[in-house]
Amino acid sequence: MTIDHFARKAGSYEQDPNRVGNVQTIAGAIRGMFQLDRSMHLMDFGSGTGLLLEGLAPHVARFTAVDVSPSMHAQLRAKQDRLGCPLEMIEADLERVDLDRTFDGIVSSMTMHHVRSIEAMFGKFHAMLREGGFIAIADLDQEDGSFHTEDTGVHHLGFDRTAIAACATGAGFRQVQVTTASVVQKGGRGYPIFLLTGVR
User: Fold this and answer.
1) Can you tell me the distance from the alpha carbon of 174 to that of 180, in angstroms, rounded to the nearest whole number?
2) Residue 47: exposed, middle, or buried by beta-carbon count in 10 A (0-12, 13-18, 19+)?
3) H-helix or E-strand containing 99?
4) Which of 36, 105, 147, 148 could form a disulfide with 59 if both were Cys (CB 3.0 to 4.6 A apart)?
5) Residue 40 burial by CB count (10 A; 0-12/13-18/19+): exposed, middle or buried?
6) What does the pLDDT read at residue 1?
7) What average pLDDT is seen over the chain?
């Protein structure tokens, strides 16, 4: 049975203005990198309460939200009628299962550091994308472990940008870029957030 690491914090997750502002900035960076249109079906990996997809939903045809946390998806379900496009929600651990779906793009914010094998996950992303589809993955730069003050299933203390770009390239992605998307302010210091993009 998978532990819902976010059960206690789901209800207050969007009450942190730094968190909300960070994800809004990431959504803006994704819109700046890719020409979204109303024919696209995107997947949000680690969708949580839907902060990221909220900023992208009005620009695409539909979203599939994938997350392991029932409590986070309960928050998303409560607002799905005002997102701007149809939404499918799937509670699944993509490290353990495969989805029989294909997408025009896969987006993700602050989820990859919860994934044990990022190499395997990039391989799954590549397999789920249509030819010409894109990934836009935002996460932490390498840090000293001070970002997370509680156990939420963290497997990586951020990532070296060159190393994670190599993982994406190794999975078959082309035009891989890693840029700075945002800086999260937490505990009196700033934590840079990168955006990794690539095309199948």
Assistant:
1) 19
2) buried
3) none
4) 36
5) buried
6) 46
7) 88
Rounded to whole angstroms, how far apart are CA atoms 175 and 198?
Answer: 5
Structural domain including 42 reads 10-199
Instruction: Please identify which residue in the block is written with the tokens 């942190």.
Output: 16
Query: pLDDT digits over 94-122, tens only?
Result: 999 999 999 999 999 999 988 999 999 99
1 belongs to a structural domain? no
Cα–Cα distance between 154 and 68 in angstroms, integer? 14
What is the crossing angle of helices 161-170 and 118-128, to 10°? Answer: 50
Q: Report the CATH number that the domain containing residue 65 is assigned in CATH.
A: 3.40.50.150
Contact of 180 with 111, CB cutoff 8 Å: no
Instruction: Tell me which residue of 124, 112, 122, 121 sits closest to 154, measured CA to CA.
Output: 112
- Domain count of the fold of the chain: 1
Q: pLDDT digit string (tens) for 14-67? A: 556 667 778 899 999 999 999 999 999 999 999 999 999 999 999 999 999 999
